[in-house]
Amino acid sequence: MDWTEFSIAIDHQAVEAVANFIHESGAGGVVIEKKDSNTSNVTAYYPAGEEAQAFLPKLEEFLSCLEDMNLTAKSFVSIKNVPEQDWAEEWKKHCRPVDIGNIHIYPSWLEPSAAPGKVAIELDPGMAFGTGDHATTKMCVGEIASRAPGKRVLDLGSGSGILSIVAAKTGATRVDAVDNDPVAVKVAQENAQINKCNVHQLLGDAFAEFANSDHDLVVANIGYNACSRLADIFRQGKDCTLILSGFPQERLAEFEGAYGGLIARCQIQEGWVCVTLEAQ
Fold it and tell me: Are 23 and 8 contacting, i.e. CB atoms less than 8 angstroms apart?
């Protein structure tokens, strides 16, 4: 199968909205890369042909509506075809080894280069979110690695499974994960097996799973609206620590206005936010 690559250069504050739109539109892979202090690239892949042709006018319409969401609408879209034989190599360009504290994450097609004593994690993101290179993932990994030992952990919107694997590798007593995308669930299961981790991966609804959970530590790198819904569930009486990320710094004041009394820790990296909520 040949693919069509859409690369959208967009202001940082609009990245979350654009990436969520693309994901919900059924892209076969989405990558977010920082270009400079104000701009990021959101790259998406669609099967070439009718599906890619149908996506373009939808994308243009969505981008034209960004101002209505109080977001910077200026954007630049480039399109290129990626032949089937080049697909794997094209996707690999976006994945590189990452060191986050004591955690070394490396793509499955490279040899590990972890320093002695580091926790090495082999990852094949496939068409799922999460390679370890994005600021939100880095912050979540750091929080989990320091908090997971001895805890029951729940990963909401697990993507490639990276956060679940970090939890399992750093001493969690139980790890459950949920995603509503069958492709992501399959990729996460395979990555857990590669890393010899016991992760119970579910296909389902993150909000329902969280509402009914008995976990000590819950993490979601999932976008602002979803984080807000999870925070609402949390303050109804959940007895756990909740790590939330996936939204830009521009929305932090809004989140603090609604849930500030629950925030025990707040981090900002490269214009992205990670907040840790503690039960009162």
Answer: no
Angle between helices 162-169 and 182-194 (to 10 degrees): 30
pLDDT of 130 > 60? The answer is no
Nearest residue to 273 via CA among 235, 234, 220: 220
Rounded CA-CA distance 140/217 in Å is 12
214: nearest Cα among 278, 151, 171: 151
What are 100-110's pLDDT values in tens digits? 999 999 888 77
DSSP type of residue 75: E
Tell me the CA distances in angstroms from 164 to 11, 46, 193, one per residue in order: 30, 27, 12
Reported pTM? 0.80
Kindly state the tokens that stand for 92: 């690999």
CA dist., res. 103 & res. 100, Å (int): 5
